[in-house]
Amino acid sequence: MSFQVDLLKPIYDFLACRTPQAWVDAACQNIPLLLQDHANCEKKAAGTAMNLMFRYGAHTELQVKLAQLVREEMLHYEQVIEIMRQRGQVWEAVSASRYALGLRKHIRTHEPAALVDVLIVGAFVEARSCERFAALAPYVDEELAKFYRYLLKSESRHFEDYLTLARTLVADSERISIDERIALFRDVERELIESTDNEIRFHSGVPLLN
């Protein structure tokens, strides 16, 4: 569909790689696990945005954008939970993947650099989520395919919102440093996606499953 191509181009341009087919194949064999982890990811995304709102209350534009994001992420969390309920899938505890931690360990500790890096990480998480919705849609059942296409349309702008917020926090003279940080996290993110992984999660790397 042309609208999907238009939505995906900025995401593909932003990310350094596409999802490996081996991940798609493994994910399609583990849909219940993927749904559970997807629900966790939506809830964590809302929680992260809410924490930023409390921590950085002086940034008005950040407050407005993140409040919108919290509402959307919680709606999507509820929708994933409803899909699980309709399929008779009970909630189970699932460990987090190495993906977010692998990105966050590169976040600087001084301000405003720390906030800039957190927002850049948020941009990559959101962009990869949308890229994976698109990667999965042709291979899953029609109910899930419709849902993933809806999420792609709904969330495709989130990564750009995060980047815009990051750029508004620094002076024009420092913009080049933000581009350098984006480049750094792009390389880290690519490595996490393309390297082998011992588990299958929504943001995991190439699975090594028994």
From TrEMBL:
Annotated GO MF terms: tRNA 2-(methylsulfanyl)-N(6)-isopentenyladenosine(37) hydroxylase activity
Family matches, as InterPro entries: Ferritin-like, Ferritin-like_SF, tRNA-Hydrxlase_MiaE
GO BP terms: tRNA modification
Record Pfam families: MiaE (PF06175)
PANTHER family according to UniProt: TRNA 2-(METHYLSULFANYL)-N(6)-ISOPENTENYLADENOSINE(37) HYDROXYLASE, TRNA-(MS[2]IO[6]A)-HYDROXYLASE
Name listed for the protein in its UniProt record: tRNA-(Ms[2]io[6]A)-hydroxylase
Organism listed in the record: Aquirhabdus parva
Lineage: Bacteria, Pseudomonadati, Pseudomonadota, Gammaproteobacteria, Moraxellales
